[in-house]
Structures are given as C-alpha cells and as structure tokens.
Design goal:
- By secondary structure, the chain is mostly helical.
- It has one domain.
- It contains 2 helices and no strands.
- Helix 1 packs antiparallel against helix 2.
- The longest helix has about 40 residues.
- The chain is rod-shaped.
Length: about 90
C-alpha cells in the first residue's frame, strides 16, 4: 500500500507527460505535412529543410514517448510486484 501511494503521483505525472508529448507529436506531424505540401508546390530549399526538420522532430518526440511509456510500465510493474510482497 505504501509503495502504491508513493508511486501514484509519479505515474500520474508520466501520464500527463505522455499526453503532452502526444499533442506535440500531432502538431509536429501537421506542420510536417503543411511544409511537405509547400515543398511540393515550390522549389524553395528552406521549406524543404523545414519539412525535414519537422520529420526529425516527430521521430524524436516519438522516441521520448516510447521511453516515458516504458518507464511508466516498469513503475506499474514494480508497484504490482511490491504490493504482492506487502509493500
């Protein structure tokens, strides 16, 4: 019980972080598509560079979400295991 109480705020915080990262990823994907459309319609190098930067940003945000999700899952697993031992 004590372990669950100690970990609950961290799990809630990680959930909020994952929600924020999901919103950031969605916004970055929208900008990537927008600049992709502009890149197809024009021959401006800087627009193509922006499209690529947003593509990279989407990948980075996705990687961070995966890490946070894994940490959250491990915390939940440890909490479950600890509660089995009377933690």
């Amino acid at each position: 019980m004590q372990t669950e109480l100690a970990v609950a705020p961290a799990l809630a915080a990680m959930e909020r972080i994952l929600q924020e990262l999901a919103e950031l990823e969605m916004g970055a994907r929208q900008l990537e598509r927008l600049y992709g459309d502009y890149a197809e319609a024009s021959d401006l190098t800087f627009i193509k560079i922006l499209e690529e930067r947003y593509r990279l940003l989407v990948g980075e945000i996705h990687d961070i979400r995966t890490i946070v999700s894994d940490v959250r899952a491990n915390c939940e697993k440890m909490t479950t295991e600890a509660s089995g031992y009377g933690g």
